[in-house]
């Protein structure tokens, strides 16, 4: 089961915030009144005597004591609220769970996603309240696919109105072939991969979309999705593909991504940590 971190964080902020507010408005006043009552009951004592009187000290401690849930809420609310605001509107961290974006992103990469570049959205509801920029071809974008609650990360290939066609692993946008140059060949080693099963090799290519270069790979033997595909991107939707073209569940499988399901733009790898018992590495840190 996928954990809905934004919802959990929102509930924590709301819960600790309500307790903090009620304490400030109601309970703190009652504690102050209780302390005043103790002061009145021990008014015959001097300040020096009060410091040494155990009954007075115990009464003051009881009157001023905050319930543990109030103390915890007041301590954690500012931090939780800050994290919630940063994650919801500015930057959110993600870990790459699959090989669909290899060689650009590897399993275990920790990335940062810009949450405001495509517009400000309300947390949880994902309703856009402020337009800023539209996605561009070549962007690496985090989103929710149609009928999915999990985050996906792929590259923007087609914009609204674009005609996307794939023929024998060659990509065409609006009838123009996307240029690419051969970089290297990689022999597949995972028996679960399509390219391994057909005895092919990965052709690593430098692809250029709208002047932006990135590395991707195709199997020398095209998969069914690489042999022939054609579609027109509807208005308000985007066509997404993984850079690991033959090992990616993307728009060729689940369809176009509606604008309202966009999360943000991935812009940097800040750490790599693929196994729990391994040592985190920063060797892959850098812009995406």
UniProtKB/TrEMBL annotation:
Domain of life: Bacteria
Keyword Lyase: no
Gene Ontology terms for molecular function: serine-type endopeptidase activity; signal peptidase activity
EC number(s) given by UniProt: 3.4.21.89
Membrane spanning residue stretches: 6-27
Reactions catalysed, as given in the entry: Cleavage of hydrophobic, N-terminal signal or leader sequences from secreted and periplasmic proteins
Major localization class: membrane
Bilayer topology annotation: Multi-pass membrane protein
GO cellular component: membrane
Domain Peptidase S26: 71-270
UniProt keyword Transmembrane helix present: yes
Active site: 100, 154
Gene3D superfamilies in alphabetical order: Umud Fragment, subunit A
Family stated for the protein in its record: Belongs to the peptidase S26 family.
Protein name, as recorded: Signal peptidase I
Organism expressing this protein natively: Saccharophagus degradans (strain 2-40 / ATCC 43961 / DSM 17024)
């Amino acid at each position: 089961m996928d954990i809905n971190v934004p919802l959990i964080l929102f509930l924590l902020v709301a819960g600790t915030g309500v307790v903090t507010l009620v304490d400030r408005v109601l309970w703190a006043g009652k504690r102050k009144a209780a302390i005043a009552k103790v002061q009145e009951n021990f008014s015959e004592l001097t300040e020096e005597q009060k410091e040494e009187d155990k009954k007075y000290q115990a009464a003051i401690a009881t009157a001023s004591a905050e319930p543990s849930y109030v103390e915890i809420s007041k301590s954690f609310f500012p931090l939780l609220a800050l994290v919630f605001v940063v994650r919801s509107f500015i930057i959110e961290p993600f870990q790459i769970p699959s090989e669909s974006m290899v060689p650009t992103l590897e399993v275990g990469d920790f990335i940062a996603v810009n949450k405001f570049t495509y517009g400000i959205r309300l947390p949880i509801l994902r309703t856009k309240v402020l337009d800023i920029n539209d996605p561009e071809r070549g962007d690496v974008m985090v989103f929710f696919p149609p009928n999915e609650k999990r985050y996906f990360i792929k590259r923007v290939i087609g914009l609204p109105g674009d005609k996307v066609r794939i023929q024998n692993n060659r990509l065409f946008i609006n009838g123009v072939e996307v240029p690419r140059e051969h970089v290297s060949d990689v022999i597949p080693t995972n028996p679960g991969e399509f390219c391994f099963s057909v005895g092919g090799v990965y052709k690593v290519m430098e692809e250029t979309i709208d002047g932006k270069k990135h590395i991707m790979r195709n199997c020398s033997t095209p998969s069914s999705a690489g042999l022939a595909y054609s579609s027109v991107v509807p208005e308000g939707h985007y066509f997404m593909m993984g850079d690991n073209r033959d090992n990616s569940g993307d728009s060729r499988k689940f369809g176009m991504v509606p604008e309202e399901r966009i999360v943000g733009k991935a812009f940097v790898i800040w750490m790599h940590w693929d196994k729990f018992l391994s040592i985190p590495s920063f060797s892959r840190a850098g812009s995406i």
